[in-house]
Amino acid sequence: MTNVYSLDGILVFGLLFICTCAYLKKVPRLNSWLLSEKKGVWGVFYKAAIIGTRLHIAVAISCLIMAFYVIFLK
């Protein structure tokens, strides 16, 4: 299990957050409820969803590299 206070823990958390928000953007009921705000604290979810959808190849490659690192090297 990774520690949240280490650099790799923060990277894992960030990647999982971006992937989750990008997935929630595809669900219509959750999209209108969670990702409707574009500013403020709730805007973080919207911005993470936009990053996940626009940079989906880079996010997917980063998730694979991080999974390899956590499973085999840590």
Protein architecture, described:
The protein is mostly helical and 74 residues long. It has one domain. Helix content is 77%, strand content 0%. It has 4 helices and no strands. The longest helix has 20 residues, at 7-26. The N and C termini lie close together (9 Å).
Secondary structure elements and their pairing?
Blueprint (H helix, E strand, L loop, with lengths): L6 H20 L1 H7 L8 H12 L1 H18 L1
Helix pairs in contact: 1-3, 1-4
**Residues in helix, %:** over 70%
> What composes the largest sheet?
none
* Number of DSSP strand runs: 0
- How large is the radius of gyration? 14 Å
Number of helices: 4
- Write down the overall mean pLDDT: 88
Subcellular location: Golgi apparatus membrane
Membrane topology: Single-pass type I membrane protein
Family: Belongs to the KISH family.
Function: Involved in the early part of the secretory pathway.
Short key terms for the protein model shown above:
mainly alpha; 77% helix; 4 helices; 0% strand; single chain; 74 residues; membrane
Give a short synopsis of this structure.
It holds the Pfam family DUF1242. The protein is mainly alpha-helical.
